[in-house]
Write a structure and sequence with these properties.
Number of helices of chain A: 12
Structural class of chain A: alpha/beta
Number of strands of chain A: 10
Distance between the termini of chain A: 37 Å
Oligomer: homotetramer
Strand content of chain A: 5-15%
Largest interface: A-C, 41 and 41 residues
CATH architecture of chain A: Alpha-Beta Barrel
Largest sheet of chain A: 8 strands, parallel, barrel
Radius of gyration of chain A: 18 Å
Order of helices and strands of chain A: EEEHEHEHEHEHHEHEHEHHHH
CATH superfamily of chain A: Aldolase class I
CATH topology of chain A: TIM Barrel
Helix content of chain A: 40-55%
């Protein structure tokens, strides 16, 4: 039976050796992550450079994650595509490859046509046909599309829509949604800078890129929150902001991979059109990691 | 001596009778607000339709607020203009009219020229010449200009820049700023939906439009926070979200004035180009007010 | 040898029967278009719902177009993907399927990382490896990414970058580019409302969605321009604006397919997340077609 | 009787000596401009740093322009304010100071409330009460507000709305408007890079910032157009693009003032928050001016 999603889930990076996906490096990383407090793994998220991968590469990564994740750790995959049909097909291919839950981002290419009605029809059709539960994914920084809180509330009535990952960092959005969804709806923050305020308002956990670089710290914020040690939790959350901003607003995935390298995981290069970080960015990241005692 | 800014400050509306400013109605409202837990008043904020008023009308409102505010209540005024010179002139005219602190929003018309350097030069020059302390005001929804956190941190070193009002609702922004400003820097949230998370991360208080409609509730969130009754505070903050969103994202100032009318304050009409709320919007606002026991 | 791109090229729609691609209907349409003045066909453009199709469907469409296009008509395909590697692979797969030229739109998902340097590296790598010439495609309405004129000018030096399709409708952009690219650089307008001003400033032709509905009129504007009958050309261009705007800003591809149906071509349904036009939209489109004598 | 607006109107800069408005320098400039082919002057446009000026400074500039403009030259002033009331008051103050026509930009501060209905009510009320004819001004780069073509068409029925200045550079917008406004409606392009295509589609003229630096060339494009020497006109228009872009997208008003200085007019400094151009920008501007034979 699939684990209930909660706690801190890392949005894993995709290791390349040269320009080839390395499932071996991917499995090595996951084995190390199994020993931290992470409760699950997101494969093929934005952080995993999902849009840069072929379907075959994507499937290989999911199978590797399923085979390597410790028992009880959730395996989620990003399965959104631009059309409803492609999304359903790919979601079910990933379901057959072993994921527990699919994270479905909004389509985005036909921006001016993606009305509330179109998005609603899309997510309902995907939820109807998907052979695993889905999380709706709001990530306007990448898609240019914001899912209205009222749409999420409406979608939450579908039995196969299990929850939401919200990456705009808008805490009020959570506050609005949380009161009006069915009990058991799983709400996840996607921002490493504000997931504690999210937990305080009722989120189940967080799905974080920065959890690659600092899985222990992110998990500790969650534990302190669960123990109601809010002052300590808050101090740690504040400590995480410079690292999260420094990496994610600085050089993004490329910098995050560099942070992984610094910690003895495999980060490696990004795939074009992403570019490697320059020396100055590397120095900054190393400094931020050091400040947090991570290297 | 000026009161230290803290707690819940209402961003007051400007009463019109017909299309004329009524300082009499304004004073009536303030006298009633004096009996709530509000710690101060913002005159000439966005909520006060500042950009729709002449300088003479603006001065009359400030003088009325100063004369009517109970002892110990802060009187702040929005004094931003598009040029540095006009901002300094108007800030000092308002200083002479009795404000404790000036809230200075970013200029916005020459968007493509308002670089970090230009904004820095602007705020430093205003701070140098203003005869009252200033709060820097970040309000991208109106200005289309976002002040970078790093700029605010730099500005905070100026002895006459007392703090920041941040109305984008971005909690991470607060987390980034709060660690790197001098002790005593006054940070205020401008969002009625997320001011509790702001307080938890270290804000001094909040300057809120919704505090016109629900001054007692907003103040109570702050009191509960100060007493560390966080669960109760959180419940109330969540309760406030539908009202705040319903009014501010629905019909805005026009709806807020209608809420004031419902509560026995004077709301009255807005000045063109703002439009009055329709019947449906009024019914919704009345419903939201009723849910909170405000009418 | 590949035909030189010029004149009016239609950005073809993709026919679905139910939710299945119909290459039979696609070929029927092309056979009819062969009898109009169009000089070529764009398969897998935005108008072709490219992002909604599988790679296998895409290949089938390209092979059908190649097989059916009359001799001398150019066959172009949109081959942009989010990563450089996927773009090269797909471009060459389409090259092997018979296209003359590939139209490569900018990647867009990692918006904040798609700097000038990243976009430059992407397009140069694609141009290096592609086995057909490429046209760079600027389509900010869909991608949220604007290619700077100076970048296009720089890219134009690459021997395998044959030209540009510019769909933002910005005529000044053309004026800036046209003076500084090598002779022989092929510049195409992508806007049915302003392609005549484009021709007048030096464009080679236009690649147009509205050419599905009005291939004869679009071609006639081009012919009149070539014959220097500018007043007549201008009158026709102005006539086309309401139809182009009515369809493309109204219901988009769904409406364009309806216009095809009206003219005896096969339009048919769109694939989700696009939605079919309502009755009112259909009536408007029929009216606009009638005004132009197209039905 | 007021001159009919047509031809090339310069959007004049406002001369400062130190930080003080100099009407003497302003008059000097106008006297020189009287000898070029310009047909009129826009005072208090965006280029005139209108938002940086006090009402008294504004009035002094208008009176100076009226007194100095040669007979037959039109004097227009930008009179838009954020509220309908302030706009009417200021428009009529400028009417009393001698302007022929008022150019009224859209309000912009209350972005989310400035619906089509609100903007319509605003412009109609201003037109009703203004004692001079008005031009509606669409300038989204500064205001963040786009006036829909259909709104302009609707407004054009008002007897006191004489025309439109359109500065977004969208030629299709013109094509859409021009067919559906009353004969005699005055349409002006506001873009120095695309005013010839505007003229070709039916505009009456252009109101241009770049006409400060190159009044003779701008006027010549218009003359060549009127003489139907379109190839020559086009060549000149293309020549103007680098200068226009280099100044207006480069350093803006500050650079334009530097270009005036180079030509022997008075440019002088800008008012804060605008910043002076650096040495590199100055060198570029000097180079662009030289290329056109302007210095």
């Amino acid at each position: 039976m699939a684990p209930l999603l909660e706690g801190i889930i890392a949005a894993l990076t995709t290791p390349f050796v040269g320009d080839e996906v390395s499932t071996a490096k991917f499995e090595e990383n996951i084995r190390k992550f199994n020993g931290t407090g992470l409760t699950g793994y997101l494969v093929l998220g934005s952080t995993g450079e999902c849009v840069s991968l072929s379907d075959a590469e994507s499937e290989a990564l999911v199978r590797a994650a399923r085979a390597t994740a410790a028992p009880g750790k959730a395996v989620i995959a990003g399965t959104g595509r631009e059309s409803t049909r492609l999304t359903i097909d790919f979601t079910n291919r990933m379901a057959d490859s072993g994921i527990d839950v699919a994270l479905v981002r909004s389509p985005s290419y036909f921006k001016s046509r993606l009305t509330r009605d179109a998005l609603k029809a899309h997510f309902l059709a995907v939820a109807d046909k998907a052979r695993v539960p889905i999380l709706v994914y709001n990530v306007p920084a990448n898609t240019g599309i914001s899912l209205e809180a009222s749409l999420v509330i409406e979608l939450s009535a579908h039995p196969n829509i299990q929850g939401l990952k919200e990456s705009s960092g808008n805490i009020a959005y959570l506050g609005e949604v949380i009161r009006r969804v069915p009990p058991g709806f799983r709400y996840f923050s996607g921002s490493g800078s504000v997931f504690l305020p999210g937990l305080e308002l009722g989120a189940c956990g967080a799905i974080l890129a920065v959890a690659n670089a600092a899985p222990e710290l992110c998990s500790k914020v969650n534990c302190l929150f669960l123990e109601r040690k809010l002052d300590e939790a808050r101090k740690l959350q504040l400590d995480l902001i410079p690292l999260n901003k420094g990496i994610m607003e600085g050089t993004g995935i490329a910098g995050l991979k560099y942070a992984l390298d610094l910690r003895g995981y495999y980060g490696g290069p990004v795939r074009l059109p992403l570019l490697s970080p320059g020396e100055q960015a590397k120095t900054e990241i190393a400094g931020l990691m050091k400040e947090l005692g991570l290297v």
